[in-house]
Amino acid sequence: MDRASGPVQPPGSTELMATAAEIVSELAKAGVSSGERLLKDLLGRLPLS
After folding, report:
1. How many Å apart are CA 40 and CA 32, to the nearest integer?
2. What is the pLDDT of residue 21?
3. How far apart, in whole angstroms, are the C-alpha atoms of residue 47 and residue 43?
4. For the chain, what percentages of helix, strand and coil (3-state, to nearest 5) are there?
């Protein structure tokens, strides 16, 4: 494990924005995936006449 030898600088605003955008993107993908599963499940339960 690498350890910093000395003070560590906090991330800059650009790095924070990039990380936040990546998190939002991952959450959106997870939400879409969950929504698709729910829709398929609901459609699978509909009686076909």
Report:
1. 12
2. 92
3. 9
4. 65, 0, 35
- Three-class SS of 22-38: HHHHHHHHHHHHHHHHH
Nearest-5° angle of CA 32, CA 38, CA 39?
90
Whether residue 28 contacts residue 20, with contact meaning beta carbons closer than 8 Å, is answered with no
d(CA 34, CA 48): 24
3-class state of residue 45 by DSSP: helix
pTM check: above 0.70? no
Residues 21-46 pLDDT 10s:
999 999 998 888 888 888 888 888 87
